[in-house]
Amino acid sequence: MSVVYKNAAGWLLDELSLIRKWYHHPACCQHDVCTRQLYNFKEDFFLIFRPHITNHFSAATHLESCLESNQSKQTTTPERKKRKRSCAFNQGELDAMEYHKKVTDLILNGAEALVQEGLNRGFLQPFIEIKDNKSKTEPGLATSACQLAELCNMAKCIPLITGAGHKVQFLETEIPLPQGISIVSQIIENKSECPSVVDLLGEKYIIPPKSSFLLSDISCMEPLLQYKTYNIIVIDPPWENKSVKRSKRYSSLSPKEIKQIPLPSLAAQNCLVITWVTNKQKHLRFVKEELYPHWSVRTLGEWHWTKITKSGEFVFPLDSLHKKPYEVLVLGRFQNAENSTKSSAKIHLNPVPEHRLIVSIPCKLHSHKPPLGEVLKEYVEPGVECLELFARNLQPGWTSWGNEVLKFQHMDYFTSIEKD
């Protein structure tokens, strides 16, 4: 169970314990004939003892001085000589700060009780008890990992199987997985209770039990459309922004391209749709005002993932001008107009709260999001089908899709453990 504590404000999660539980299921550990190795996700990726930055400069104070500076400029004659602007905020940043003011009390007050309970239960520890851990070294990353996105580009040269020809490739101990490009653009499923290891162009990736995935880009989603429909769909789009373009860390999609995702073909009636949104207000407005209406999804609420250290501090100051210690999730339900009246009379689901907090120690890996299954299960029927789009890791009981869907499944992120 990943939920350490739950109250009216939200949930305090222990992501590391949940991930580790995925890779040594009791059924696998006790099965004598099972020869598969068990694994632990490396603890170092969740050892965050101090905030990333310490900043006591108030964003609100800076905003006030900026506005005063703008007003004084309007009352004076502008000089011909070009001068450096005293205010660096553009309209998008001003909108973000206005939004931040609206949610600050919600996040501050909601997180306080959850963090305090985490301290009471020993899940979090006061800073004085862990300060000696500052010498901990950063965990080694999978620097030699296979370039999954490039592999998907290579696979575009292969003729695609269409229609009923799509098949699911099951992982079995006796049958090795096809190597290289041949595993791209087809559903791979591990039906067993044990993790499995696959070799992809000389790199090893760990597949959790009861999971399936499609390694492809947005141009080859057809196998996914032929596979299942889903009751929960989590989306983490590669949003366009300047830092991504500069770093070339991954390819981004424009809003127009994101709207082309065939979500209505993947979603069952009353499917719960959750979209991760950056702190850019134009992305939040796009999801609520354009994307969800385009997909026939009704917006239900905005939740916030709040990131803390092991001592319960925000990883960034709440009033930081740039980095925020939270990210936004927009929740909605898919409603197919043709079936909405018929199905609504049969299904009685708990209403999704407009605001909730998910508080956890974040993983150090870039763009690694906490699993949401534990906090969403009370808003869907039991035994539902779950899908994550633009995933970079796998989860038991879920189907995952993306052009880097195995990224955080690389062997370098795990350590092997001995079976008893």
Automatic annotation (TrEMBL):
One of its GO terms (biological process) is methylation. GO terms for cellular component: cytosol; nucleus. GO terms for molecular function: nucleic acid binding; RNA methyltransferase activity; site-specific DNA-methyltransferase (adenine-specific) activity. PROSITE patterns: MT_A70, N6_MTASE. Pfam families: MT-A70. Belongs to the MT-A70-like family. This is Methyltransferase like 4.
